[in-house]
Amino acid sequence: MFPMRDLSPTVSMEPSPGVRSSLPLHVSPSSGSFSSFTSLWDGLRNLRNSVVSEEKRETSWIEKTFYKRECTYFIPDTDDPDRCCCGRPAHWHGDDIDEVASSNESWLPGLHTAHAPTDAFGTIEFQGTNHPTKAQYVRMSTIDTKSEAVLKLLQKQWGLDLPNLIITMHGGMANFDLSPKMKRSFRKGLVKFAKTTGAWVFTSGVKTGVTRHVSAAFGEGRSKQFKRKLVTIGVVPWGVLANKEQLVGRNITCSHHHGKTAYVQSTLDSHHAYFLLADNGTEGEYGAEVIFRRRIERHLYQQKVSKGINIPMVCVVLEGGMNTIRAVLEYVTDKPPVPVIVCAGSGRAADLISFAYQNATKDGKLPDRLKVILVDAIQDTFTCTEEQAKELCLEITVCLQRKNLITVVNLADENQELDMLILTSILKGTCSSISEQLRLALMWDRVDLAQDYILDRENGQINEPLESVMMEALINDKVDFVKLLLETGVSLHSFLTVNRLEELYNINPQCQFNPVRYFIKGLRKNLFPNYRYTLLDIGLIIDSLMGGAFKSMYSQKEFRQKYVAMRRISSSSSSTTTSRKSMMKQTSYLSDMASSNLFQYPFHDLMLWAVLMNRQQMALFMWQQGEGAMAKALVASNLYKRMAQEADADVLESGISGHLMENAQEFMKLALEFLGHCYHIDVDYTQQLLTDDLINFSNATCITLAVDVMHYDFVAHNCCQNLINDIWMGGLQTRKNSSIKVIAGILFPPFLAMLDYKSKKQLKFMPQTAEEHLEDTVEDEDSDENEENDSYDLDDDSIQQASPVRTLATSSSMPKLSDALKAGQKPPMIRSMSMHIDNQRRLSRQELKSLQKIANEKQRGCNVSVHLKKPLKLTKMTHKFYTAPITKFWFYLITYIAFLVAFSYTVLVRTLPTPAWPEIFVMAYLVSFAAEKCWELAVLVPGPLKIKLRVFASFYWNLWDAVAIVWFTIGVILRFNPSTLNASRIVYTLNIVFFYIRILGILSVNKALGAYSKIIGKLLKHMSYFSIIMFIVTACFGVIRQAVHFQNEEWSWFMLRSVFFYPYWMIYGEIFKEEIDTCTDIDNYPGGCTYGSWVSPLAMFVFLLVIFILLVNLLIARFNATCIRVIPRVREIWKYQRYNVILKYKLSSLLPPPLAVFSLIYQGIKYLIWKCRGREDFCDHGLKIYLTDEEKDKLHEFELQCLEDYVRHKENKLQTSANKRISAISERVTEISAQMDDVTVQEKSFRHTLQLADQGVSKLEEIFLKNHEIVKLMGHMVPGFDEFAQSPSRQ
């Protein structure tokens, strides 16, 4: 805003001649320093000129647009001939006025004043408060100023947005008091109203009358945030201002002090932000602003604030005089009319209108009897004539004909809220449809108005669509309104369409940072400015942020086909050549597509939109809706975290990265708390949630999402660790000494029969790969026929108790069911009570199976299940043992140790021309190991090779293994060439280091070693940065030393080695003291000192100081900080790493290298078989549980119930929090304080009444004494009066 700048024209940016000479820099004019200094000075000068030119341009626009008015004719006032009718004395007009109008002529502003460019605008600083406030002002003519220019001034120059509502305050200009209760109610309602609605408040702008109460209300509730929202505009007559000479100036900043002024002069109120100083050429007279203010309000009232909705306006009346009644009449009879709020009990005009309103009939008529009372009340209130009172009474009765536009509020009634009555009056007078009223409530951000008034009035029966309101609520980020609309009955399944979702992604962001546009620039090049994002673009963004093989729904083939088809149809339907029949067909098809399962989970899609648009509160609300709460929280945290990392890497605006990371941490906390809540309710269902197949999130699982987002606490939770332990043990049931038992089983296979294994039912709810699931399915199908012929060991009593059909008692001679089945006989007869005794039927095989299931359930309750007792077959037992990850781990470790032993033997002994058997074993092992890595790359994730390589390279040990294999391959190639036999030995020697270090990765399943390997990895990362700095310092000293010590050397590669050899060993304390100085090194320099020999010791001194004192200690301090930060979380980090290690052994081949080749051949054959059968999901190696539809429904129902319980528990916890209690106590204290104020006022009233009573008693005593004196006097003057006064008849 231009008046806020304070650039004095007297300040010059030009350097004075003496300034340059006084500078301490003595440089020639041609030097680089002087040119850089002059360029800097020129830049500052250009910046100053641009700012000044912009200010002059804005100043010139105001001077060209707005004018002032000055009287040019002297017309004597009839009451004061020495004063003009404009209010100024005769000498003010000057002596050069040639014409003086006759005294009979009426003074008119349009005829007797002249306009000139305004000379008073700028900024006012109000003094006299702890924090001085500022306001902007412009003096403008009431005759020449157009309303459009005022609106442009407010918007363009002063930077205001159009208001959501206009409040115009009217009332008395003189000071008046309200009772404490009314004052408190008025201030509270007005502040709450102005804070929430984003309104413009128009007042008279002077610190008297009704404006004084408005100012006090805004002064109590003013905060920095409230100050930005509140716009108070004062329309003040220029002629009544005190010390207005201080305001004269163009774009100035002047101070304004509050003080006592004359009756005809007024001071500006300090709680106003903008002043329009209305000038009609008069001095000391009110009324210049009335018509001008009404014209501006009418123009604003016609502006569109929303689609088809004008800016609402309301008039609030507090006290007031005769002009206030006329103003109310103008507002209610205007076109369009303006609702009026009358504050009853505030006095004068407000009380008169409220009296007439409360006693008028429904059609707005006032009985004649009450009219007489009203006229008398008007005369008593305003001390006017009877004709004026009747005229005002008539105006009031005309106002009552628009009774629906008037709302009377009793400020003394605590049940009536001023802000709610103002808003309801606007809705009652301006809007008719429910959707328009909801849009206004949305614009004002008053969900209580929509809930308690708009929707409650309809009793839940709304016949018009509310999708447009829902769209505006989402665009404006109004979470409460979205929640209310969902409760009202708006269905997101029918609301969410492709066009609406794309429109949401293409809205302007609430801040300067637009995440969608920022990330799409890196994916699509050469975007034009108005590029419209599609859901396909959003899919690319999500895939890029999630990383790995994650494929969002918008990137999947099925969605892309539907999307392209819808776009093609919509484009063809918009062409003019389409026939009516095809148009109808396409329209119906589009409607079917919109209502199809394109967005099966709309809350998921809207949550992703909220996250990508950085709308945290909306994202949190969408997280609470629908199913998949745990997965949604993890996906949101991952997106936020990757967005924060991208923002931090590109060094975006300060605070953006931190804000995004805070949002990620909040969702991570939600995921962890929700996991703990579910785990507390049901352990089994919670473990199923962790490994359930998430169709809407790239068929991932919750635990894999947690691993991707690196949520250590989530993976370290007891629920996840129990699941990981089950995966680690595989089909084994053993817990104690499991490693010893597994090693014994590997070394002594008959020991397998002595181990405990899990049952089939337990294995069903364990995570497994698609391959294992398909194999189990085929095995179950093959065993169904055999199970039908197996004996179930049931007797007749079991059948009678288990069968749903009640049977008669069988005879003892009837053969048992099990015996009949064993003998291959037909099933026995069972009689039914519901049938005749002769009607007998045979049990089918399906009925027998159902009976067997029921019997098995009964037997399980007694722990005598035949199925559990029956031992596993040897083949099944062997398969479960060797496929367990713990078995694979020890099997791999044993073979790997053998490999290291053979490799070490190969390196240590003499290299023969022909490879010996240890070397052959090493080659076979690494060939098999390389083949296994290739298979792992092929089946790691579905998708193209680029994605596979990206996911494969995300694991550092894979890159380590790839480098080791390539290095060994080079050594093998050199090995079989006789000329490079020794070179191959060196390559082998260096290559074995990779495989020794790789043991750290293998042993990371250990609690101690795994944690320390993570710490070592972080320390190596920090050390790499310091190594660069040390390399620079070492190179500096090495070059100096080499150049000074060897000044006559020719170039050789040995010279480069010497540069770094000595400085490097000096880091570890070997300083080579004999070779420090060439003067003392007689052996190497018999000729004595070299030229400049002193340079080397000096450089060595600096080098050792920097290396030892600075860099080494700095590196130690950095290591210490890292250890302090990591060690407390070592356990969580190890638990997190343990999942990836266990998953690796779970998905590895059955046999370790070098036997892994045979296992891979078997896997390849199985892959081709399943490929021919059309099972593409055979290569999905993610660990999931495969449930039936009924089991999935139960699982999702459990998650929804847990989510509702969690949200309810969190709300209760929030309500009982310390801050909430403090807030409640503060409200109670405020209420008690208000009640004490009321008691104080009542006490003062009682005291005043008692004082009046005392005064009355005193007067009665005085009258009694006077009468007594009179009686005595009359007794002396009239004879016999005393006897008459004391006679019994008088007594």
TrEMBL record:
Domain called TRPM SLOG: residue spans: 135-399
Q: What InterPro entries does the record point to?
A: Ion_trans_dom (IPR005821), TRPM (IPR050927), TRPM-like (IPR057366), TRPM_SLOG (IPR041491)
> Which key words tag this protein in UniProt?
Ion channel, Ion transport, Membrane, Transmembrane, Transmembrane helix, Transport
Which segments cross the bilayer?
889-908, 920-943, 955-974, 986-1005, 1025-1044, 1094-1116
Q: What is its main location?
A: membrane
Ion transport domain sequence ranges = 890-1117
Identify the Pfam families for this entry: Ion_trans, LSDAT_euk, TRPM2
Instruction: Give an example GO cellular component term for this record.
Output: plasma membrane
Q: Which GO terms describe its biological process?
A: metal ion transport
Quote the protein name from its UniProt record: Transient receptor potential cation channel subfamily M member 3
